[in-house]
Design brief:
The complex is a heterodimer of chains A (325) and B (328).
Chain A: E1 7-22, E2 27-43, E3 47-51, H1 58-65, E4 73-78, E5 81-82, H2 90-97, E6 98-101, H3 105-108, H4 115-125, H5 132-142, H6 159-171, E7 177-181, H7 189-206, E8 209-214, H8 217-223, E9 226-231, E10 234-240, H9 241-246, H10 251-259, H11 299-303, E11 309-312, E12 315-317
Parallel strand pairs in A: 3-8, 3-9, 6-7, 7-8
Antiparallel strand pairs in A: 1-2, 1-4, 4-5, 9-10, 10-12, 11-12
Chain B: E1 5-14, E2 17-27, E3 32-36, H1 43-51, E4 58-67, E5 70-71, H2 77-86, E6 88-91, H3 105-117, H4 121-134, H5 140-144, H6 153-166, E7 171-175, H7 183-200, E8 203-208, H8 211-217, E9 220-225, E10 228-234, H9 235-240, H10 245-252, E11 301-302, E12 308-309, H11 322-327
Parallel strand pairs in B: 3-8, 3-9, 6-7, 7-8
Antiparallel strand pairs in B: 1-2, 1-4, 4-5, 9-10, 10-12, 11-12
Helix pairs in contact in B: 3-4, 3-6, 4-6, 6-7
Classes of the chains: A alpha/beta (325), B alpha/beta (328).
């Protein structure tokens, strides 16, 4: 087993461009850069959170790492080897390494299959040699579900239980990485804690790495060690959770933090309310992509695109005005 | 001062299954009341019952809804329709459930103005543009000609708010108004609602599952569980000194950034699905403090002048709540 601190997976300048078709003959009309030169390292036994609003490309990053989407540029380095995106075996290799946990487990469980069968499927796919039913029981135990329940159907479970089934199914392939796409967004507060605790426990026990996608910053703080903030396909700020949350440098991160509701009446803080909405990725703004909504934007922000620069100890920010604000 | 809205012991059943089991609260003029609760606790059904929008098989089986002291539940359908839109208006989580996809924005806002305010078509078109401006939509004249599908999520939400405002309501019920939106847009919409409230003096009921939204935006809050109000109080009281074990559990189970928490608290068990056979405290089976006394019916007890909780442990200071004594 790989040791904590080693790199589980690394991506360099990862890109995904979707062609946009339209018009009379569905000819190419343009392209959407859903993910634009994204680089990060995910370490063994660590959690990296991807944060951002809808359309920022965070889910596309996860889908590429799950082998569900083929990158159009950049590289993915797994076990010290660069993956060949064109090779037939690559999606399979990624799927053996990384598994996805989806937001709505009800939509990803077959309603006509018992949950035990759903969890068993990955075992069949990878030609598991042992007793499959026994293994399913072990997986149910690992996510603290009653083993008696394996012959029931998805509709007989509550939301929190279904999410645990989703996690059990992801674990069946014994992945090194779990790609969690908003795993608690569909859950009520009182059960959200159960799922987050389970994820933490599994990580401590098995040293699994998580790429954790969420828009809920309190949840991100709770679960992750590293945080990357994305805006329109690019990472604008990245670093340890303390750096990003407490020594926030990018105006967008500041606005996100200010906009997320906090349970502390009385200490209502001044908040930066951004005007407008996220621009269309079909036609992203020139220069810094955030300049159309940034309260500090200057001429240079409209003209030149800022690059990620190191502040200290791995805290990276892409902003021209970093010394001024 | 007479409350604007007073709900007394409201009971609603779907077919023969009880969904609301005696919900009572008041809303004062100009006040923002937050209703929090998990899915299935009865928040939206409460709102729909107040509006008179409950549809089959849902039926009000008991209680009263007093609007300026007058019971509206017994009013004939056309009288309720006149109230709806002019006296009270509602906005929803998903604007597309409220906007008609085959009419332009102008037609939909004008309809409210012509119906409730007696404007003619031309006046209504001009007023509609003003309302769009008021909710922060740039270039309102052009947007009036748009169909709902041509607008972004945040814009649709604004159009729906403009429609609700067009009737000049005294009470706006917002049912999860920002749940489908991104956080930065959510902040914009809530700021907008606050500004409009300050300008018009309308009262608001903010229904949400997000405790943070209530903490930041409401004056008072009620916590619902299994078709009942379990706690009612000023926002400061609810969040700094919650009295009901359910409220306490909810607050404890929230992750908070900036704090070091290794494992999160979570309330064991799940929300009861069938409310028909509950006689005692509905939360007892999940409550860490439950004793035999919890199987008896629970009433609201005063903790302070403004805070009440449905738990016998809260009995200490005030005894039964004021409104319950009056009701007997």
């Amino acid at each position: 087993m790989a040791k904590t601190g080693q790199v589980a997976i690394e991506v360099k300048d990862l890109e995904k461009v979707f062609p946009v078709r339209g018009g009379l003959f569905s000819g190419p009309k343009g392209e959407v850069r859903a993910v634009d030169k994204v680089s990060f390292q995910l370490k063994v036994g660590e959690t990296l959170a991807l944060v951002g609003e809808s359309g920022c490309g965070k889910t596309t990053v996860a889908r590429m790492l799950a082998g569900l989407e083929k990158p159009t540029g950049g590289s993915v380095i797994l076990n010290g080897q660069q993956l060949d995106f064109d090779a037939k075996a690559t999606p399979r290799l990624l799927q053996e390494t990384a598994q996805m946990v989806f937001q709505d487990p009800y939509a990803t469980l077959n309603p006509r299959m018992t949950v035990g069968k759903s969890v068993e499927e990955p075992l069949i796919v990878r030609r598991y040699a042992g007793d499959r039913r026994q293994r399913v029981k072990e997986l149910f135990a690992a996510v603290s579900l009653d083993q008696e329940m394996i012959d029931r159907y998805p509709h007989q479970f509550s939301g929190g239980q279904r999410q645990r089934i989703g996690i059990a199914r992801a674990l069946a392939s014994e992945p090194k990485i779990l790609l969690c796409d908003e795993p608690t967004s569909a859950l009520d507060v009182s059960v959200q804690g159960q799922v987050l605790n389970l994820l933490k426990e599994l990580q401590q026990k098995h040293g699994i790495s998580y790429l954790f996608i969420s828009h809920n910053l309190s949840v991100v703080w709770h679960i992750s060690q590293q945080v990357a903030v994305m805006y329109l396909g690019k990472i604008v700020e990245m670093g340890s959770r303390e750096a990003v949350f407490l020594k926030t440098a990018h105006p967008y991160t500041k606005a996100l933090l200010a906009a997320s509701p906090k349970v502390a009446p009385g200490q209502k803080q001044e908040r930066i309310v951004l005007s407008g909405e996220v621009p269309s990725p079909l036609n992203p703004p020139s220069g810094c992509r955030f300049h159309t909504r940034c309260p500090y934007a200057r001429d240079i922000c409209r003209e030149r695109e800022p690059q990620l620069q190191d502040l200290d100890g791995g805290h990276q920010v892409a902003c021209h005005l970093i010394d001024e604000i | 001062m007479q409350p604007l809205l007073e709900v007394q012991g409201l009971e609603v059943s779907f077919a023969k299954r009880p969904v609301l089991r005696g919900v009572s609260f008041t809303v004062a003029p100009g006040e923002t009341l937050g209703i929090v609760g998990e899915s299935g606790s009865g928040k939206s059904v409460t709102a729909l019952s107040i509006m008179g929008l409950l549809s089959w098989p849902g039926r009000v089986t008991g209680g009263r809804v007093l609007w300026h002291g007058e019971d509206v539940l017994g009013l004939p359908a056309d009288a309720r329709r006149r109230l709806r839109g002019s006296a009270m208006a509602m906005i929803f989580q998903e604007p597309m459930t409220c906007l008609n996809p085959v009419y332009t924005v102008q037609q939909q806002i004008s309809e409210v103005l012509m119906l409730h305010r007696g404007m003619n078509k031309k006046e209504a078109a001009e007023a509609a543009a003003e309302y769009l401006q008021q909710v922060g939509i740039a270039d309102p004249k052009a947007r009036l000609r748009n169909y709902p599908h041509e607008l972004s999520g945040g814009m649709r939400q604004r159009v729906m708010i403009a429609m609700a405002l067009a009737g000049e309501p005294e009470l706006l019920i917002a049912d999860e108004p920002t749940t489908a939106l991104d956080v930065t847009v959510q902040a914009q919409i809530l700021d907008l609602l606050k500004r409009l409230q300050a300008e018009t003096g309308m009262a608001m009921i903010l229904i949400t599952h997000d405790l943070g939204l209530v903490a930041e935006n409401a004056d008072r809050g009620i916590v619902m569980y299994a078709g009942e109000v379990v706690e009612d109080g000023k926002v400061d009281e609810l969040f700094t000194a919650p009295a009901h074990p359910y409220t306490q559990g909810l607050l404890q189970s929230l992750p908070r950034w900036g704090e070091q928490q290794d494992m999160l608290y979570s309330i064991p068990g799940t929300v009861p699905r069938n409310l028909a056979n509950i006689t005692g405290c509905a939360f007892a089976e999940r409550c860490p403090l439950a004793t035999e006394k919890c199987s008896e019916p629970q009433v609201m007890h005063s903790i302070s002048v403004t805070q009440t909780a449905r738990c016998w442990r809260a009995q200490g200071q005030g005894g039964e709540a004021e409104w319950q004594r009056q009701g007997k």
